[in-house]
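Sequence, please.
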């Protein structure tokens, strides 16, 4: 089974040049981009050769934004600083000689005074075939086992798989809400499955557009990215966590790789495909309007976020070195960049640190403020990270080699990753216990919901429960699953047709369950019924199935 990266690489190979924005001319656009980049680079080299504040000011006037502009400001700052007293002043360059060389385009991370390199132990927990993503619900870790059509619940205290729940085909992503509800996204079934409690089974929650493979959660909404027809440009869909209603938010360029929702925005990473470089789409969560960042210096971006910024990590195509860039919460382009000695496969962030998992299993901990290196972590394992989560003082790393060997599909738990801390295993919070009081406090007036509404977490939301064996369409209508029929307002399994007694009149015979004259052909309705209707022989017209009503456009469940 190919990994997520291999699947995207396959799609990009088949779809070479087909995913540019509407009206974009690949040849002319690429030429213009190359000319602009070449001009900026030539101007930068010219200013560097002069090496004066006036030269850098002229460059910044013409190129105020971008990576070269950040380097130019660093040169101006360096020229303004007095020579260090501890070291002798460097000899002036000979006439006609260029100034000292600039720092590399992607400087290695600075090492602070507390930076260290440690080797930590890792607890290996074997999971099902092809694990992809993980989610933490406050007590347990959940992992999507895409090759086993299941999700696994891992007890972080006993460090073992507690239970497995069956979901749809190819569960590729997972999220958890603040109240402990866990959602799994099935790419093949185009369905979101929900687990409301550990005792309940995973049930169908909402249908989403085809080939959905990325999901995020924020502010009572699930956000899903789908590759329409698995190859065409993508679409961003919002699904309510309260009632399951879906709504299209924005059209996206093809090749999405990861998504984070922070600061009232939806950040979607896009890999380089069809001659187009990788970039990040920034979508306003309310209006759906979007902007794109500048080209990223990497091929397959992975995202992480905290309250102040979004971090994008990866590696240039066919490169063994990693790159991480930073997009501040109020900005629409990256303003900081750092290079790491290993290609980045997964990324996580806390308010203080950025945690990058390299493809070879090395974990780098950097300051979320200035990208200075704080800690380098190695383990005695040969992990291939697909996802990484920071759960207090424990890191959870989902590792898979994309095969069916049990030893190659593992979740590693690493304690003591925080610099300056000791390795303390994660201890879940105690379960809520019922408190017996001598006198019950006064209760607020209960909210009474109107007809067709129900109370969810103290709020009245529209009743949208389709019942068992049914699913909800994007328009909000309920339909029965395959091999189920609507009877008396419920979806029941379709029964095999049984032979019935031939009680037809003397001039008719029983054929296909209907009485027809012997010399007449098989019955065909005179009209085509739409909107969920069937042709009624008794009424000689199209009519809704049992338990459904007609609203002038389609049959609906009252």
């Amino acid at each position: 089974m190919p990994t997520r990266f291999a699947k995207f690489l396959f799609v990009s190979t088949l779809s070479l040049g087909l995913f540019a924005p509407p009206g974009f001319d690949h040849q002319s656009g690429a030429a213009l981009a190359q000319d602009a980049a070449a001009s900026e680079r030539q101007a930068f080299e010219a200013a560097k050769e002069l090496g004066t504040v006036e030269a850098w000011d002229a460059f910044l006037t013409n190129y105020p934004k971008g990576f070269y502009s950040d380097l130019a400001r660093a040169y101006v700052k360096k020229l303004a600083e007095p020579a260090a007293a501890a070291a002798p002043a460097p000899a002036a360059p000979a006439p006609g000689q260029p100034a000292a060389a600039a720092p590399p385009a992607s400087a290695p991370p600075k090492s602070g005074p507390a930076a260290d390199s440690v080797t930590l132990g890792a607890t290996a927990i074997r999971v099902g075939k092809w694990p992809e993503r993980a989610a933490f619900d406050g007590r347990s870790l959940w992992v999507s086992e895409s090759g086993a059509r299941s999700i696994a619940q891992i007890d972080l205290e006993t460090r073992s798989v507690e239970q497995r729940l069956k979901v749809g085909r190819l569960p590729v992503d997972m999220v958890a809400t603040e109240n402990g509800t866990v959602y799994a996204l099935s790419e093949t079934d185009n369905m979101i499955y929900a687990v409301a409690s550990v005792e309940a089974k995973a049930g169908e929650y909402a249908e989403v557009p085809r080939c959905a493979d990325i999901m995020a959660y924020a502010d009572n909404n699930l956000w899903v990215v789908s590759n329409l027809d698995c190859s065409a440009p993508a679409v961003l869909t919002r699904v309510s966590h309260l009632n399951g209603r879906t709504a299209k938010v924005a059209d996206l360029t093809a090749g999405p790789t990861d998504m984070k929702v922070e600061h009232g925005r939806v950040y979607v990473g896009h890999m380089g495909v069809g001659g187009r470089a990788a970039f990040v789409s920034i979508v306003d969560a309310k209006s759906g309007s979007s902007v794109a960042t500048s080209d990223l210096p990497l091929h397959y971006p992975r995202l992480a976020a905290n309250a102040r910024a979004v971090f994008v990590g990866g590696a240039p195509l066919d490169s063994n070195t990693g790159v991480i860039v930073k997009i501040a919460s109020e900005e629409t382009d990256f303003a900081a960049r750092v290079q790491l000695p290993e290609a980045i496969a997964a990324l996580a962030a806390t308010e203080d640190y950025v945690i990058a998992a390299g493809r070879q299993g090395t974990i780098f901990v950097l300051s979320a403020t200035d990208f200075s290196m704080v800690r380098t972590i190695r383990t005695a394992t040969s992990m291939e990270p697909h996802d990484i989560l920071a759960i207090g003082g424990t890191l959870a790393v989902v590792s898979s080699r994309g095969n069916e060997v049990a030893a190659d599909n593992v979740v590693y738990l690493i304690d003591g990753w925080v610099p300056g801390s000791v390795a303390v295993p994660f201890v879940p919070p105690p379960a809520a216990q019922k408190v017996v009081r001598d006198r019950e406090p006064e209760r607020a007036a209960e909210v009474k919901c109107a007809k067709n509404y129900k109370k969810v977490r103290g709020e009245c939301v529209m009743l949208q429960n389709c019942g068992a064996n049914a699913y909800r369409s994007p328009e909000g209508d309920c339909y029965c699953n395959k091999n189920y029929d609507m009877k008396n307002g419920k979806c029941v399994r379709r029964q095999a047709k049984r032979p019935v007694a031939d009680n037809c009149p003397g001039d008719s015979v029983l054929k296909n369950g209907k009485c027809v004259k012997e010399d007449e052909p098989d019955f065909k309705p005179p009209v085509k019924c739409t909107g969920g209707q069937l042709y009624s022989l008794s009424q000689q017209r199209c009519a809704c199935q049992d338990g459904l009503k007609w609203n002038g456009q389609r049959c609906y469940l009252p």
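Residues 26-50 form the longest helix (25 residues).
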